[in-house]
Specification:
The structure holds 2 protein chains of 2 kinds. By secondary structure, chain A is an all-alpha fold. Chain A folds into 2 domains: 102 residues, RNA polymerase sigma factor, region 2, helix turn helix motif (Rna Polymerase Sigma Factor, Chain: A, Orthogonal Bundle); 81 residues, Arc Repressor Mutant, subunit A (Orthogonal Bundle). Chain A has 8 helices and no strands. The termini of chain A are far apart. In chain B, the strands form 3 sheets. In chain B, strands 1, 2, 3, 4, 5, 6, 7, 8, 9, 10, 11, 12, 13 and 14 form a 14-stranded mixed beta sheet that branches. In chain B, strands 15-17-20-26-22-24-23-19-18 form a 9-stranded mixed beta sheet. In chain B, strand 11 and strand 12 form a beta hairpin. In chain B, helix 1 packs across helix 2. The longest helix of chain B has 30 residues. Chain B starts with 12 loop residues before the first helix and ends in a 26-residue tail after the last strand. Classes of the chains: A mainly alpha, B alpha+beta. At the A-B interface, helix 1, helix 2, helix 3, helix 4 and helix 5 of A face helix 1, helix 2, helix 3 and helix 4 of B.
């Protein structure tokens, strides 16, 4: 019983450490935003049930991502309501993730960068112009649809999508710059 | 046969410009399509554009991944609920662990403790002992158990990848389980409750009172699959249409409070506690049930009347939790008669609901008196008015321990013989209060000083020193009273109320030492 309690305690510590990066990874496989938490929770539950198969000392995050990839793969095979974006795009992203998994060092590097990226993102958000910050607020914090945002901004949904696209690209550039500055 | 691609450098300038323009257009088109896909609102053809572009420009997949990564980080920043997520994982893991324990407990409950613990499979004829156990069970029960355990093995109900979406629930009440704490907010898909009880509030305001042992899962926030156990549902104002799906049919709320109980032998029981529900099953089609009606049904039998339903009352804090009353029933065998007796363990108190087919009337003390102390915390049977006119009416119930049985009989009429022969009038009264002025039972009664219309009831009692059965007759007038009650000529007494209190020490008895002479016949209490 004492050993099981320790394992559970250790496992929950891993959940705290890995959950942010795992959710980002799941989203990058093309899972819908509203389903990311769901699949992340399923991943952790499966990992807990199969914890005896994990070799301590190896990369726990990488093992979680393997489980998550399989869950998303199952999702693509399901009939009816799915929790991924466009199926073919998700398949493409999944096959790329499978390729990366054969190069564990790449995955490890990306995982380690995640915390720094999150920190850099916060700083970059502060630098956004007012209109961009308002769009981020509406889309991500209030989770409004493109149509509702478009009505508020007196434009159309397609334009809103394009603005968000450019905004994400700008944030990505900003983050790279921030990380680059950290390195110098 | 495809044309060979010409090298860009060898192209004349105007064609280079054209190629650049086409490429730029493709890039814009790809960006737009990808943006809409990432935002979750693609247009027809967007997927094809993106895939074609990725296949011809594989390096662009990094761009897609980058956008998805930023998108994920922005959502994570917005939610900022990492603690809630970690907690939801903890609860999900605990549910997995209790599932294993629960499967074993279900196994033992069905097959006995000698059943092999190592396997979950029901092996018919495995051993002499097993054969005896199988002979002792019905085939349908064994099959139902096999199917249940097979589904557990397959992890059907708990399979996180199965159909159903998680629902954010708030824990309102917890009793006898560590799986939840009051105030918890949990994303729940499957609910396994091997012990205790928990009240969960859904985003729509629907309140689920869950009683173990229970197995259920959400299909979505307005639809719950109940495999086993009891759930009392209070839908409030915004939960109309909430549906409980059982192995034999669906219960659709039409604005109500109702209870559903699914048992391991495949029988489902549905009771309407207020409002109405629609019961849909393949076997019988659609059946409407209203407040005060309850049925039981299975895969092989259509809806039959359910005589009594235990009514939970969480406001009561009583040392005794279980009722001493069992098997309440009557002899009214009319088609489409679905009235049930409400059994409220330890529920008797000032202001408790009196009848199952009348929402308003409550049992209250006479305004000039305190509520009889000996009645407090007694088990209450909520009767109904519907059959009070049946002259051959009989109501029967059993008690599991020595008890005092109380009958609240309409004080406006002389009591029937079945009451005076076996019970004694305590000389104390209680009232059913809150009647409508148009109710036929209250004709001729003026509102009291507080404007309420109340029917006075004499409290009669009888001690049963051994567990046993009690049979009560109809409330109708005896023939001799037809001439003496001209004020209420043509009317009938209100249905009587019933309460049962485990035998209390003499100091807590409510009877007066000398009952009032005007209403008491010279009969002794018959004790069995």
């Amino acid at each position: 019983m004492a050993k099981k309690k320790t394992n559970t305690k250790w496992f929950m510590e891993q959940v705290e450490n890995e959950q942010s990066g795992l959710k980002g990874f799941i989203r990058m496989l093309g899972v819908r935003p509203e389903s990311v938490d769901d699949i992340a929770q399923e991943t952790f539950v499966i990992a807990y049930k199969k914890i005896t198969m994990f070799e301590r000392g190896t990369n726990f995050g990488a093992w979680l991502r393997t489980i998550a990839r399989n869950l998303v793969r199952n999702e693509l095979r399901r009939q009816g309501r799915r929790r991924v974006l466009a199926n073919d795009v998700a398949e493409f992203l999944l096959s790329r993730a499978d390729e990366k998994s054969t190069h564990p060092s790449v995955e490890v590097e990306q995982a380690e960068q995640h915390k720094q990226q999150v920190s850099a993102l916060r700083e970059c958000l502060q630098k956004l112009p007012e209109r961009s910050r308002r769009l981020v607020q509406q889309r991500y914090f209030e989770q409004l649809s493109l149509g509702v945002i478009a009505a508020d901004e007196e434009t159309n949904a397609n334009n809103v999508s394009q603005i968000l696209f450019r905004l994400r690209a700008a944030l990505s550039d900003c983050i790279q710059k921030q990380l680059g500055n950290l390195g110098t | 046969m495809t044309k060979p691609k010409m090298k860009y450098d060898s192209l004349p300038q105007h064609l280079k410009q054209k190629a650049d323009s086409v490429q730029a257009k493709e890039a814009v088109s790809f960006d737009q399509s990808m943006g809409r896909i990432i935002d979750g609102e693609p247009l027809p053809g967007d997927e094809q554009i993106v895939i074609q572009h990725l296949m011809s420009h594989p390096q662009c997949v990094q761009q897609v991944e980058c956008h998805l990564a930023i998108d994920a980080m922005l959502f994570a920043e917005a939610r900022c609920d990492s603690l809630a997520f970690v907690e939801s994982v903890r609860v999900a893991i605990e549910a997995e662990e209790t599932k294993s324990v629960f499967v074993r407990s279900v196994q033992e409950a069905i097959f006995g403790s000698t059943f092999g613990r190592s396997g979950l499979k029901c092996d018919v004829g495995d051993s002499g002992i097993q054969s005896k156990k199988w002979l002792g069970n019905s085939i349908s029960l064994a099959l139902a158990c096999s199917l249940l355990l097979a589904s557990l093995i397959a992890g059907g109900i708990w399979n996180a990848a199965a159909i159903g979406e998680p629902v954010l629930v708030e824990v309102d009440r917890v009793d006898g389980t560590n799986a939840f704490a009051i105030g918890d907010k949990v994303n729940l898909r499957a609910l396994v409750l091997p012990e205790g009880a928990v009240d969960l509030r859904l985003p729509s305001g629907v309140l689920l009172e869950c009683q173990s042992p229970l197995m259920a899962r959400f299909e979505h926030p307005m639809r719950l699959h109940l495999s086993q156990g009891r759930v009392d549902v209070d839908v409030g104002e915004e939960g109309v249409g909430f549906t409980v799906v059982t192995p034999v049919g669906e219960v659709v709320d039409l604005g109500t409070r109702f209870a559903v109980n699914a048992s391991v032998d495949g029988e489902v029981r549905v009771a309407v506690l207020s409002g109405q529900v629609e019961l849909r099953s393949q076997k019988v089609g659609t059946v409407n049930l209203i407040d005060g009606e309850a049925v039981r049904l299975s895969g092989t039998q259509g809806p039959r009347r359910l005589h009594s339903v235990e009514i939970r009352n969480h406001g009561i804090d009583h040392a005794r939790k279980d009722s001493v009353i069992h098997s309440v029933s009557d002899n009214v065998d009319l088609p489409k008669n679905r009235r049930f007796y409400g059994l409220v363990p330890c529920g008797m108190r000032d202001g408790v609901r009196a009848y199952r087919d009348r929402k308003a009337p409550r049992w209250e003390a006479d305004p000039s008196e305190d509520f009889p102390e000996g009645l407090l915390g007694a088990d209450l049977i909520q009767t109904f008015q519907t059959h009070r006119l049946q002259r051959e009416f009989q109501l029967q119930f059993s008690i599991s321990q020595p008890s005092r049985v109380y009958i609240f009989y309409d004080a406006r009429y002389s009591p029937p013989n079945w009451l005076t022969q076996d019970f004694v009038n305590t000389g104390i009264q209680i009232r059913s209060v809150g009647w409508s002025s148009t109710a036929i039972m209250t004709k001729g009664i003026d509102p009291d000083a507080w404007g309420k219309i109340a029917i006075p009831h004499d409290i009669w009692c009888r001690d049963l020193v051994h567990p046993g059965s009690v049979i009560l007759g109809p409330p109708v007038l005896s023939k001799k009273d037809l001439n003496t009650t001209s004020e209420f000529e043509g009317l009938k007494p209100s249905m009587y109320g019933i309460a049962v209190q485990p035998i209390a020490p003499p100091s807590q008895n409510i009877g007066k030492s000398a009952p009032a002479k005007s209403r008491v016949k010279a009969l002794s209490v018959s004790v069995q």
